[in-house]
Write a structure and sequence with these properties.
626 residues; alpha/beta; Glutamine Phosphoribosylpyrophosphate, subunit 1, domain 1; Rossmann fold; five-stranded parallel beta sheet; 16 strands; 45% helix
Length: 626
Amino acid sequence: MSATVRHRGPDDAGIWVDESSDAAVALGFRRLSIIDLSVLGHQPMQSATRRFTMVFNGEVYNFAPLRRELEALGARFRGHSDSEVILAAFERWGVESAVRRFVGMFAIAVWDREAHALHLIRDRLGKKPLFIYFRPGFLSFGSEIKALIAGPEFDRTLDRGAIVSYLRYLYVPTPSSIFRGVRKLEPGHVLTITDVERPLPAARPYWSLDEVALDGLQHPFAGSETEAVDELERLLLDAVSLRLQSDVPLGALLSGGVDSSTVVALMRARASGAVKTYTIGFDAPEHDESRHAEDVARHIGTEHTTLRLTGNEALAVVPRLPDMFDEPLADPSQIPTYLVCQLARREVTVALSGDGGDELFGGYNRYSQGSRMIARALRMPRPARRLLATAIRGVSSERWDRAYGALKSFIPGEGVRLAGNKIAKTGRLLSADGAPQMYRSLLSAWEHPAEIVEGGSETPGVVERVLAAPGPLGLVERMMLADQLGYLSDDLLAKVDRASMAVSLEARVPILDHRVVEFSWKLPQAWKLRDGVGKWLLRQVLYRHVPPALVDRPKVGFSVPIEAWLSGPLRPWAEDLLSPRRLESGGVLRCGSVRRAWLQFQAGERSLALGLWAVLMFQAWQERWG
């Protein structure tokens, strides 16, 4: 099992079996050595009294002050790893009380010999994965599903409801997984198993994003705008400083956007030596931000590396995706994310990343433009709304693109990227009833994914729950909370974890320090979204270090030209995977529905590209793992 995830820890391996009781507990570990490279950091690791035995993936960044506190209380340490501090904290304060003190990213499995209990723990935001396979009498767990598949037993029955959700969102929402017998432990939860013969108990939250959001609204930040900028900069500086702890080379991933530029600027302010930064450039100008990243790096003063790739070099990653993502994930930015991690790993073992700024500080266009569209649509009489939706949807996205291209010289401003796709999304939004369904339509790759899956049905998820729940949150706040609870951990952080770990690189995400998250919910919406532009407060922090002209530009996103690929160089590959023979042999997707969409895409309905990419990623995944 541990051999399947050697890429996550190529430096060391360990196995421990409890032979002192009838518990039948075994723990396996692969180590990527970051803190305390000596044998004293080896895992599985036991506590001083041997009560607790643990395997732990990730980092607890505030281990040094915790160590000092524990030493003052009488604890003694042999090495200098955070793992040893975690175990001492469990012995002194108990598992849940200790975890609440941790600042970091982690998936932890700890066997309590005294209580005869296995505790499985996941960090607050879900930066580190934890999959669990269970049937009465047997439980296995791991950082990736491939480890569970290699276990003593595994049931490969697919969860068709999870496949429906995947086709809508491009990821499988927690706690489900692509396999019916596997679940993901929810972020911020502890699952304690004392009797494996009984049904799996409910996991307990030790930190709740729902509660954080409500508490922030009830206890808003009381200072001025300037004081808020000061406080955010202080929190981010501390978050970055904590993540600079490493006994191996460390750098940062720099796209040149607001988020990564902020992290790198603060990193430069705190680092004692040179800061190394890395960027991937593409030969497609509309997807290439490498020049902007180089300008930012030059201003901040980093040792910067840019690797410019051709489309063929990016395409070469596609066959590797099913191995890398052993649960299907269809976010196309997985490709450049993997490539920039691969570039950084040539020189460093740890890299800081700017992920999280959009979700915390309102950076996505859907928060500003989408919320206005939903509000206006809800004011329209339903018959008029549906009539307008029918008219919009009667024209293909390619024809809308051509029409917009002919008219944009008469339209003031910088223009709209992917206008045809956005107009198509507007048609879908107008067809929906109610705010939850309208917001879901903005997130959806397929409008009716259950129609594509044989025997599939859709279960309402976090988007519907958060958007429809009563309470004090406004529409934009609900949209952001839904994204933080779903998209953030299941797509963005899962993508970063798998892509970085595939090349044995540890990615650290300071903007998603839970203290920054808690502070963000205390801020008024006007300090996040202002004049139609997101991340206002975060930008003010960045402007203290980088001139606005270097970072203020329309959002491009870290992605690849999926539409052009599927209609060009990837078309033979796609046609083969979407052939009637292969669709029917899979036994999951309805051949007629998929083929119809594929033909519509080739006829000019480019808005179907992302949905078809999800189907292709599933097809490729199923042939590898299903």
